[in-house]
TrEMBL record:
Naturally occurring in which organism (per UniProt): Actinacidiphila glaucinigra
Protein known as: Putative ABC transport system ATP-binding protein
Lyase listed as a keyword: no
GO cellular component: membrane protein complex; plasma membrane
Keywords: ATP-binding, Nucleotide-binding, Transport
Pfam families per record: ABC_tran
Amino acid sequence: MYKLSGVTKRYSRGKDTVDALRGVDLVIEDGDQLVIQGPTGGGKSTLLQMLGGLDRPTEGSVELDGTDLARLSEARLTKVRSQNIGIIFQSFNLIPTLTAQENVETALVPLGVRASERRTRAAEALASVGLGDRLHHLPGELSGGQQQRVAIARALVKRPKVLLADEPTGALDEGTRDEILALLDGLWKEYGLTFVMVTHDSAIARRATRVATIKKGRVTVTERTPAA
Ligand SMILES: Nc1ncnc2c1ncn2[C@@H]1O[C@H](COP(=O)(O)OP(=O)(O)OP(=O)(O)O)[C@@H](O)[C@H]1O
Ligand SMILES: [Mg+2]
């Protein structure tokens, strides 16, 4: 469970300061799905970075299961991230010179998993996203949707409890976008993930049961009972 209290993020550049987040309080229960939306520059990616331990707040606390990520040493934070948090982005961020399988394996290196087990688990993760027949392809030999599937496999191969996605379908065409969203939805349910997704897609926001809207660094949460 995430518990954010009074999270403020101020970016300073010389005399210029930007308050990207202003006193955000937010709870995300285990196994929940939270959709984050709002205008460009509102602070969505900044909030996701706080949740992922990729950056620290200027003020406030970001507790994951009672541990404040804002106060962890860099080494402990890296450990929490590599064990518990899978992250996917709009640009798939794959390493172009590594095959699909090798890209997925990279997530297991910091966990000290043996090479043979890394290979097996990477192949299984790729099969679970429908890419069992593309293990040895390089990113440049895959379609956009397939590259995002590799990135999803890389995020999930470590069996994290949290999956964070920052506009994961932003670079994809409409048909592929629906495929990826259906895949993510299925994986969320199958693995009982805590799933937080930033999206500009209002159709997704309409379907979601819990939506956080961020404007000028402030968050409003809307809850809805899903139609049966
Ligand atoms: N590293 C940084 N240094 C300075 N300012 C930053 C930095 N990162 C973000 N900002 C500023 O913080 C604010 C929030 O940015 P953020 O990237 O979180 O917005 P966003 O909601 O994700 O927007 P988008 O929909 O365009 O992705 C913006 O005004 C942005 O200019
Ligand atoms: Mg953003």
